[in-house]
Structure formats: structure tokens, C-alpha cells
Design a protein that fits this description.
- The chain folds into 2 domains: about 170 residues, no CATH class; about 100 residues, Pectate Lyase C-like (3 Solenoid), CATH 2.160.20.
- About 35% of the residues lie in helices and about 0% in strands.
- The protein contains 8 helices and no strands.
- With about 280 residues, the chain is mainly α.
- The protein is globular.
- Helix 3 packs across helix 4 and helix 4 runs parallel beside helix 7.
């Protein structure tokens, strides 16, 4: 699979709420927090969901305490479950499918996330053998999106995640090592390994963090204003309320829309081409 094709696959993973039956507003469990002001059990429609599956407070979500709604991104899983898996038949029109549809949604969401990672990885300059393995994995994942609901519910997603993670780690290591080798000063790659680090609130303003591994790290409320974050691996990184104002993330790896939505930034923040600038970021 060539790079241009995979880049288009990655860019195409965008939610289209007009083709979804409000699955993020119904299938997911919500507890009171700084992100939500209500309790909503999984499988129960949000009180703000209208009959046409739109949100009656969509333009006021953050003002009314529903910050989490503006952060969430299903990468297009919602419309696939609604229009492909269940052939355009809603849970309201077919109550017997309600529970199954809600169970399938988070599974499809995970599949789309893995597709996004695999497609992005192939777009990098990596050895052909690694690219071939990723291409095979990507095609397998794409095939999963066409399964029926029972087949989706029986999937072992842990197995898929484990095998893909090995390939993603190999990809990020190759890219990071190449960048680190070109940085001034002879530093060892392990000095840039901060996977699963607890850097909550850490002051990183104006730092050059190119090539850093932040897999699974906690960067909640970290100050990364004007920080160079190119070729940084962000798989599973918690960026909630991290200050990315003026930061350069143009070639950051495995960054998701949800991670960016949860962070803070401005018009000077440089994002990867497949990531959209959140409307709630300050100008």
C-alpha cells in the first residue's frame, strides 16, 4: 500500500454526525466530573439528544459543563456502525438492535483508532519489510469494519492491539533514532525515552523535545508552550489541559484528534495535516 493512499485513509477518518444515530450520546457511560455535569449510564440517551440525533446545546457544550463532548472523537466509527453494520436502521426504529448497536460502537471506535495508527505508520520512511507488515495489518483492520455485529462482538481486540503495537513501536523507534542522531550534541536514544512518565504540570516551555518517546506518559497540564515536538511519539499520551500554544507538532507521531481536543493551544500551534484545530482553542 503506497504512502499517498495511506495518508488519504488517515485524513479520511473523520466523524460525520449527520450519518450517525447519536451513538456517542447514547452508548457511552458518563459520570459527573470537570468534563460532564451529569450521570448517564451506558445505553441511555443523553437528555440533550434530539429526535433527529443532533444535540440541542451543541453550540454551548463547554459553557454548560459538557467539555467532554467537545473532546470526544470517534474517528468516523459512529457513521460506520450506523450505516454499514446496521444498514442505516436506527436503534429508535429497531429497538431490538439497541443493546447490540451500543455494544458494537466502542469496538468499532477501537478498530478505527488502530486503522489510523497503521495508516499513519506506513506514510513514514521505513524499511519495506516493516511497511509490508503494516500494510497487511491495515488491510486486516479494514476488513473488520465490514463484519456483522455478532462477529464484531466476538473479536479479540487485545490480540490485534498487541501485534499492531509491536509494529508501531518499531516504526517510531526508527523515526526517532534518525532524528536524535541529527540533533546537536551526542546524546543516547535512551535519554529521550520518557514512556509512561509522570510529567503532570511539568514546565517544558521553549524546550527542544524532538525525538522523545512519550508513549503512555502523563502530560496533564504540562506547559509546552513554544516547545519543539517534532518526531515525538504520542501513543496513549494524556495531554489533558497541556499548554501547546505555539508548539510545533507538525511531524509528531500517532497524535489523535481527541488528544489535541483535550489540550490547550492557539493559532500558532503547528499541527499534523490530519489533525484539525479545535474550535475552542484561543485565537
Amino acid at each position: 500500500m503506497n504512502k499517498e493512499t495511506t495518508k488519504n485513509i488517515r485524513k479520511g477518518l473523520i466523524a460525520d454526525c449527520t450519518k450517525c444515530f447519536g451513538l456517542c450520546c447514547t452508548a457511552l457511560n458518563i459520570m459527573p466530573s470537570s468534563d460532564f455535569p451529569i450521570i448517564k449510564p451506558a445505553g441511555t440517551p443523553c437528555m440533550n439528544l434530539q429526535s433527529d440525533y443532533s444535540c440541542q446545546i451543541h453550540s454551548q457544550l463547554r459553557e454548560k459543563g459538557f467539555k467532554g463532548c467537545t473532546v470526544f472523537d470517534c474517528l468516523g466509527a459512529g457513521q460506520v456502525v450506523s450505516q454499514v453494520t446496521f444498514n442505516g436502521h436506527s436503534w429508535r426504529d429497531n429497538p431490538e438492535t439497541r443493546e447490540k448497536m451500543f455494544q458494537v460502537f466502542p469496538i468499532m471506535e477501537q478498530i478505527h483508532e488502530m486503522i489510523a495508527y497503521a495508516a499513519e505508520a506506513i506514510s513514514y520512511d521505513i524499511p519495506a519489510t516493516l511497511s509490508d507488515k503494516l500494510s497487511q495489518k491495515l488491510m486486516e483492520l479494514q476488513c473488520l469494519t465490514k463484519l456483522d455485529s455478532d462477529e464484531l462482538l466476538s473479536l479479540d481486540l487485545v490480540m490485534y492491539r498487541y501485534t499492531l503495537n509491536e509494529l508501531l513501536t518499531a516504526t517510531s523507534d526508527i523515526i526517532r533514532e534518525d532524528i536524535i542522531a541529527k540533533l546537536p550534541g551526542a546524546k543516547k536514544v535512551k535519554e529521550y525515552d520518557h514512556a509512561r512518565a509522570d510529567w503532570i504540570g511539568k514546565k517544558l516551555k521553549d524546550k527542544d523535545l524532538r525525538g522523545t518517546d512519550f508513549r503512555g506518559a502523563y502530560l496533564i497540564a504540562a506547559d509546552m508552550e513554544n516547545t519543539d515536538l517534532r518526531a515525538v511519539s504520542f501513543i496513549g499520551t494524556d495531554l489533558r489541559d497541556a499548554n501547546l500554544s505555539g508548539a510545533n507538532l507538525s511531524t509528531s507521531m500517532f497524535l489523535t484528534q481527541m488528544q489535541i481536543n483535550s489540550a490547550k493551544g492557539d493559532v500558532k500551534t503547528i499541527l499534523p495535516s490530519h489533525i484539525q484545530r479545535p474550535s475552542h482553542w484561543i485565537s
